[in-house]
Amino acid sequence: MITLAEVARHAGVSASTVSYVLSGKRSISAGTRQRVERAIRELGYHPNAGARALAGGRSNIIALMIPLRTDMYVPVMMEIAIAVATTARIHGYDVLLLTGEEGPDAVRRVTGSGLADAMIVMDVQLDDERLPLLRDTSRPSVLIGLPSDTTGLTCVDLDWTAAGALCAEHLARLGHRDIAFIGEAPAVYERHTGFAERTLDGLRSRARELGLRVLHRPCAAGYDAVAATVTRVFDERPRTTGFVVQNESAVEPLLALLRQQGRAVPEDVSVVAVCPEQVAVQASVRLTSVAVPAQEMGRGAVEHLVAKLDGREDHDVALIAPELTVRASSGVAPAAH
């Protein structure tokens, strides 16, 4: 078993410095902290959670609240969860996964039982009913998501508003004027889930500034649902030449339907997606996309939470700047050739 002393030798620091990095009892420079954390990863060191709990009055457990709903794209949620778990282990914490749709009851259970030292909360809604409890509890928490009011909260998220704006800007530069936004399932908007609402707001706002007409249609999973949505789009806006898709399950059905209708991508219709990189590059047409930085979001949430546990950080909102990668699915609008 790797010892703390071996970690110290590997990092070129004293054993007490490693201990301070793990416990957060003293301020350690960023460079030294990174060397110690790298040594922990490389050696596979696992602090004795029981001993640390006795010494510091902590459980050394982080609760991750990740409701696994059928209308959400579970692979992204799980990628975030894995990033949370692996980053937490680097800092000597284990993760308690809470996957039920319990809302405030789950928060009360964690805060009232001492099950965990802190919480990371996902699937955040704009007016999330868990927020008052998170603001009132003494246990630190970080949201992976952005509610309407961030007062008294620490949040890590992609800047979804900017992501939506990027999609509008890209299609406008290519000469598109009528675009359709194929969104998440209707229930996601009914809950006012933050990422979906903010992407739509960013797209609409930038489209207005650029003189684009936008038709937003939520879309349930399944080929038939996508087919009905696409038919409705072209019935209502026959001159639509650009699609923005924020619904991973709709990507392949949309591309298949466009082929069946004789609409070539990107010569006749351009498609831009807000989705994980893997979905974009493995699609039947490599998609121009704004990537969802799931691992960065998970790692960032843990880093902010550990800083709060160590008393090194107060409330903060950290938004990850979106990046749009141009691939084969977007091109100059037909009328602009």
Q: Explain this structure to me?
A:
- The protein is α/β, with parallel strands linked by helices and 337 residues long.
- Among the domains are: 46 residues, lambda repressor-like DNA-binding domains (434 Repressor (Amino-terminal Domain)); 146 residues, Rossmann fold, CATH 3.40.50.
- The longest helix is centred in the first third of the chain and has 17 residues.
- The N and C termini lie far apart (66 Å).
- About 2% of the residues have low confidence.
Quick structural summary:
The chain has 337 residues and is of the alpha/beta class.
Main attributes?
434 Repressor (Amino-terminal Domain), 15% strand, six-stranded mixed sheet, 46% helix, alpha/beta, 337 residues, six-stranded parallel sheet, Rossmann fold
Task: Please outline the helices and strands.
Blueprint (H helix, E strand, L loop, with lengths): L3 H8 L3 H9 L6 H14 L5 H8 L4 E5 L8 H17 L3 E5 L5 H10 L4 E4 L9 H6 L4 E4 L10 E4 L1 H14 L4 E5 L3 H5 L3 H17 L2 E5 L5 H14 L5 E4 L5 H10 L9 E6 L1 H6 L5 E4 L2 H16 L7 E4 L3 E2 L12
Parallel strand pairs: 1-2, 1-3, 3-4, 4-5, 5-11, 6-7, 6-8, 8-9, 9-10
Antiparallel strand pairs: 10-12
**Approximately how much helix is present in the residues?**
40-55%
Helix/strand structural class:
alpha/beta
Number of helices: 14
Major sheet details:
6 strands, parallel
Which spans of ≥5 residues are poorly predicted at pLDDT below 50? 49-55
Strand content: 15-25%
Radius of gyration: 23 Å
Order of helices and strands: HHHHEHEHEHEEHEHHEHEHEHEHEE
At CATH level 2, the architecture of the domain at 160-292 and 324-336 is 3-Layer(aba) Sandwich
